[in-house]
Every structure is written in structure tokens, then in C-alpha cells.
Amino acid sequence: MKQRDTVAIVGVGLIGGSIGMALRARGLARHVVGIGRRAGSLRTARQMGAVTRTTLDLARGVAHADLVIVCTPVGRIAADVRAAALACRAGALITDVGSTKAEIVASLEGELPRQTRFVGSHPLAGGERSGPAAATADLLVDRAVIVTPTVATRDDDYTAVAAFWNSLGARVVRMSPANHDRVLAATSHLPHLAASALAAATPEDDLPLVAGGWLDTTRVASGDAELWRQIFSSNRSNVLTALARYEGVLASLRHALEQGDEAKLVEILAEAKRRRDLPANDLPANPDYSWSQGNDRPPSH
Amino acid sequence: MKQRDTVAIVGVGLIGGSIGMALRARGLARHVVGIGRRAGSLRTARQMGAVTRTTLDLARGVAHADLVIVCTPVGRIAADVRAAALACRAGALITDVGSTKAEIVASLEGELPRQTRFVGSHPLAGGERSGPAAATADLLVDRAVIVTPTVATRDDDYTAVAAFWNSLGARVVRMSPANHDRVLAATSHLPHLAASALAAATPEDDLPLVAGGWLDTTRVASGDAELWRQIFSSNRSNVLTALARYEGVLASLRHALEQGDEAKLVEILAEAKRRRDLPANDLPANPDYSWSQGNDRPPSH
What we know:
Chain A has eleven helices and ten strands.
């Protein structure tokens, strides 16, 4: 991919910072402008080599950009995309990295200036760490990035956004915003809810005796509470559906334990083990999405 | 600790094999006898250097041992301890590594020959891996081993078992069998149940898009279904209590989501984060157990 002149990154945390570092390490942009609300984070991003210039002023920061990537918390993305669209040059491409897509994409549809080229994205990377100090140039290498065009998206814009993620080493998965949110409720948002509930349900007196199992199972509960509140609220109905399914399986396990139904207990545990072991092995096809850019295989873990 | 002549390990899987490797690496036993039910596992244990001799015959294997460690699945431990007690020399010390303690210890109390020196143990190590091929000589270094004497246990026997675990680099925690099972239900058995339910509740079509969060949260669900069935069945009432507490927290999260109660949602998530981040920092005191052998600090993670 030929070098861009200027890329603007709105929000230089773990993801924004890592994108900046990857752009610079791969020689993909002459200038990387970091835009933030806290001078401290911008300074860290500069020190990490994630950005070449920084500003607290979004409109100034995006003014000369060919590409704008909005990496702010889910609750602020739509407003930041709108502000970027009003301030950037005609023809600039805009994307985001939000963990939910339907609400964000819907709230922007028809609300952006006519020439705006916006396509939503969601890199499946990150986790419980946060902030630019945790950023790395290879965070997205071999990771899946879901790109969510709508019927209103121009083919060229989808292709340009997909090519951008591919240029950072990521694999692109094309899905509708609605399918994205339904799948992510099951694969990411429910796991976070389950892990948080588990940590909150562990009596404080017992914490000195937790070991590897508890630490693994609750790891994501260490993520920022307010960022996750925004994700859950933005994907409420899908999260509630996934949660109901989870509560149903827990009720089956409880019933099997109460009844001493050992066969049922081992049946559920064996099915859980089978699904847990699947992602590393044979992967089923899902008609709701496709792997694009010639990446005909799913991401490795 | 001075070298023992013969240690017998009944069941040479991950834990048994690791104990054997540690004994040999530290020069703590002249002979380590591996006793098992499958010639293949015994061969692997021999190849790993975990044992010096092997046999399929428990009575013959323990006949000359100073120390017998029963590392078989929870459902078989009591029977194997009984068989070892009948076949070993007077004065031999016997312990086990079972993930539950109350049922095992109670079923042995008063059922062993008079001179038998048995004290129950549970090393907090292992995880979803299994088999002797996964064994390592340092598996127990800096790990907590809970030792569970009863009113019938002689002080010397407790001290000898604790000293044995310390000699492998582990820290010893003294607890009653009942307290052990209550705490482990919260810190280990419920996490396994929660992780298994999550894996089982994830639609198979969505598995290609799982990322780090799902993989961490469900990791322990990869453990052997039958082994875990035995653990759950052996600690049923404590597991049901812990599960009820978990279902209560999930219900609060669901209610907060349904009602759009963002304050409640963030309150639970923040409390979960606080508890998740505690084990690495300040640890509360628990009156139900004590750290022994001069280890006045809890295990590191």
C-alpha cells in the first residue's frame, strides 16, 4: 500500500496507539496526528512513537488527514465521527474501532455530509489492558478486523477501509452491523459479563486462595467499568439474549447437580469442552459473514 | 530435608508426574515408584524422568514406600488410600492431592488401620492440561498446597506432610476439610462451572470470531469432563451455594440492563474489577485458615 500523507487518530489509547505505531513501523504514513482530551496520554503516545504530532483540537487535528480513525469509547464514537466529517477534507476516509456497530452506524447514516466516506470497523484485539503505554506495533497482526458496510456504503470505500486494515497485518471479516453485534454479544460481551459476575461473586475473604483457573476466568473483569458499561448499553438487546442463553445453561447445570444427574452433568461439561477446543481446530462456516481480501481462512489464535 | 528411600506415587498424571520430577530434581528420594492403571502413562512418566520404577499393582508399588502420594481422580482417592494403607509398611506417611477434601477425609476417618498416618492435601496447581507429558519439576514452586488435618490427626503427621510440600518449593496453608471445600467451591469449582456454561452457551457458528477474552474466560472448560464431574459431585452443596450467589449477581446485571440502570451496571462492574485486581495487591486476612511453615505471606500468582 502506498504511503499516505497524513493519518489522524482520534483517541490514542491501546488500540489508537498501536495503530499509530504500526503505521510508522511499516512506513504507511508520513504524518500521524494524535488527537486526545488529555495532554498526558498524548505525551505518552508521542514518547511511544505512536504519533508524530498531537493536538487537543479534533477539528484542527483531522483537517489535513487522508484517513481518520476514531478510537474513542463507544459512547463517544458517533459524535467524534460527526465532528471529524465536518472538519476533514472532502474525500477523506473515516473509520472507527468501536466494540459495537449497529447503534453507531445507524446514528450516522444520513447524518453525515454528502461526500463523507465512513465505514465502521472493529478490530478484535485489546483486552483488559488500556492506555497508550500498553500499545504495540504488532497488536493487529493476524487479528480479525470486522468491517461493517451498509447498503449505503460505496464499494470503493469498503475496499479502501479493508485494504487499510490488511496493510497493518490484520485479516478482514465483512459483516452487517446487526450481525456483528449479535455475534459479538456471544463471543465478547457475554464473556465479559460472566467474568465480572464471577469476580463480584467471589467472597473477598477467599481471594488469597484463588489460583490459575479463577485468574483466567475473571481476567477480562479487570477492564474499565465505564467503557464496558457503554458497550453493554449500546448492545443491550443482543447481550440480554446471550445472557438468557447463559442463564439457561447454568440452570441446567444446577438442576443436574441438585438431582444428582451425573449423566447430564458430564454431558454439558463434555459439550463445553468440545466447543472450547474447536476454535483451535476445525472451524464451522457461518453464513452471516465472509472473510475478504483473499483471506479465506479465519484468524489464528 | 533428608533423602527418603522410596516414595510411591499412585497416579502419574500432571500432578503425580510433576511431584516425581521435583523429587528427583531435588534429590529428595532414592526411588520413586510410579503406580498406574495404564502401561502407556507409566511409560511416559518413566521417559519424563518422573519415576524410577513403575508397576500396575498398587499393593506391590507401595510395599517399601516411606511416603505414598495418591494422585488419582477424586472419585477414586478414598479407595486408593485404603488400599495403600493396607499394603504399606507401618509408619509410612500417606497423603493425596484431591481437589475436594471433606468427603474423602470423612470416608477414611476410622476406616484405616490403626497405625496409618494419613493427612489430606490439595496443591493449587494444574489446570486444563493433564497427563504425565505435561508434568514439570517446578509445577509446585511458590504454589499453595492446602493441608487439611482433622481432630484425629497427630501433630507430627501434619508437620511431616507440610514439610514434604515445603521441600518441593510449595507454601502450605492449613485448613479444615470443610473450610477447604467451601473456599474452593468459590475460587475453583464455580469458575469451572461458569466457564463451561459459557463455552456451552456460545453458538457453534460464532466460534470462528472468538478472541482473547472468550479464550481466557473459557480456558478451564477444556479440562476433562469426567474428572470435573467427580469434583462437582463430591462438593455438591458448596458448589450449589456458590452457584446460587453467582446466579444472583447475574440476575442483578440482567435487571440493570433491562431497566437501563446504568449506575447499577457500572457499580457491579467496578466492584468486579476491584476484586479481580485484589489478588495481585493487598490481601485480606481469612480467619478460616492460616499459612504455616513460616510462610506468613500468601502465594504469589
